[in-house]
Design brief:
alpha/beta; about 40% helix; three-stranded antiparallel β-sheet
Length: about 450
């Protein structure tokens, strides 16, 4: 079944279902203009929610099981295949595979089987807010264990899948540091700004060591480092907070990437080839009004203080000159197709300004529950509902149709052509010539 027919006809889906000089040179060759340097086997990416933190109640969460991705895995990857998505973020649940340094990776075997069957490459999330119970990120053995785990995980997946190989060592270090270091939502349950800074350094140290460990096993492996790309503004009646809001947008939110790049705390071993690929998380609630305590307040639609995504991408490119992807993004509910338009247009506008944009990850592929309320967020290509006491999946057709329309525009001819290169995207960006704006849905 071709993609167009799939989108029109699919309804309910049931359960039938060591750096060397050569690698440094290679990575540096990808850091300038986009040109022919295509990194991923497709411009649109996706993935599956895989958080496995210990939540406020000190109980371990497993979003892979909560969304039943482990049960529906064949259909989940079939969805991606039919949508033309060839790369997906997939989690390895560190707390579940690492028993005090002994490893059992069998839980990802169904994912690997489905990837191979539907020819989808993985970006392997190695630490998605969760780590083993016997570890403390503030102790030295955290990095040591993470290094051993990274090596073991790399050996496991490269022996069972075809390249190219992509890894995401520690997901959203900046956000992880907030929820675990200052807000006390997840382990290690700290609640001061100083603890947040310490946790960020510890996670960056582990991530840098993890990158090096992965490349000792597979020198060609590429790294994606995802963190939120945000805009924080002061309340209209609080000009005294203008500097704090500005610093959070343009200093603090970039600190983790700065460390990985080697701009800050160089003694930790960061370098441009460590940062490698910048993964910019982008959500509407990333445009915020500053609050002195706790999470900031999201700006409403139409607020004139909203900054176009294009501007934030340009700032990121100018800062690092590393390849960029939208590492995670989605609209909500009926706004999903409009969100596709906004993000694609802003990304193409950035490409027209010379930003090396390598892809957009519409995440998650299957909707996820809100961590706090358990309410399903309607943010995936598939919505989830319960029928007869079991979760079932429905394709949200307007979202899929809008993605399909952009695939047609970017290919310009045969949508089934599997040889799309960055030059094709660059040509399409020039032809379409979208203008950045502040429209957020």
């Amino acid at each position: 079944m071709d993609r167009k027919s799939f989108i029109k006809n699919t309804g309910l889906l049931s359960a039938a279902c060591i750096f060397t000089e050569s690698i440094t040179t290679f990575l540096q060759s990808c850091s300038n203009n986009a040109g022919n340097n295509t990194i991923f086997p497709g411009f649109f990416l996706s993935g599956f929610e895989c958080s496995n933190f210990k939540w406020r109640d000190h109980k371990r969460r497993n979003l892979i099981k909560e969304t039943e991705h482990d049960y529906f895995v064949d259909f989940d990857y079939k969805i991606l295949h039919e949508l033309g998505i060839k790369t997906a973020r997939e989690g390895i649940p560190w707390p579940y595979v690492d028993n005090k340094g002994s490893y059992n990776f069998s839980c990802i075997d169904p994912m690997i089987k489905a990837m191979n069957k539907y020819k989808v490459n993985a970006i392997w999330d190695l630490c998605h807010y969760g780590y083993p119970d016997d570890l403390d990120p503030f102790r030295a053995d955290f990095t040591e264990r993470f290094v051993r785990y990274c090596k073991a995980a790399t050996e496991y997946v490269i022996s069972r899948t075809k390249g190219p190989y992509f890894f995401l060592p520690i997901n959203e270090i900046t956000y992880f540091s907030f929820i675990g270091g200052e807000w006390g939502w997840v382990a290690p349950y700290k609640n001061t700004k100083e603890d947040r800074f310490k946790l960020r350094l510890a996670l960056c140290k582990a991530s840098i060591a993890g990158v090096k460990a992965i490349r000792e096993v597979e020198p060609s492996a590429r790294m994606v480092h995802v963190d939120p790309l945000i805009n924080v503004v002061a309340p209209p009646d609080r000009p005294d907070l203008i500097k704090a809001a500005h610093d959070e947008t343009y200093v603090d939110s970039f600190m983790s990437w700065d460390i990985l790049y080697g701009k800050k705390y160089p003694e930790l071993g960061g370098a441009p080839e460590i940062l490698d690929i910048v993964g910019a998380t982008n959500y509407s609630f990333g445009q915020m009004e500053y609050r002195e305590n706790g999470p900031h307040k999201a700006l409403p639609i139409g607020d004139d203080r909203i900054v176009p995504l294009y501007d934030l991408l340009q700032f990121t490119w100018d800062r690092y000159k590393r390849p960029i992807i939208i590492g995670e993004t989605s609209g909500l509910g009926s706004g999903r197709p409009y969100w596709v338009n906004d993000v694609v247009e802003e990304t193409l506008a950035a490409i027209n300004r010379g930003v090396n944009m390598q892809g957009i990850c519409f995440f998650p592929a299957v909707e996820m529950p809100d961590w706090n309320t358990g309410e399903w967020l309607h943010n995936g290509f598939c919505d989830v509902t319960t029928i007869g006491g079991k979760l079932q999946r429905f394709l949200y057709k307007p979202y899929a149709e809008q993605l399909h329309s952009w695939e047609v525009k970017l290919h310009a001819s045969d949508i089934n052509n599997n040889t799309l290169q960055m030059n094709d995207i660059i040509k399409a960006a020039k032809r379409i010539n979208p203008q950045p704006d502040k429209n957020w849905y």
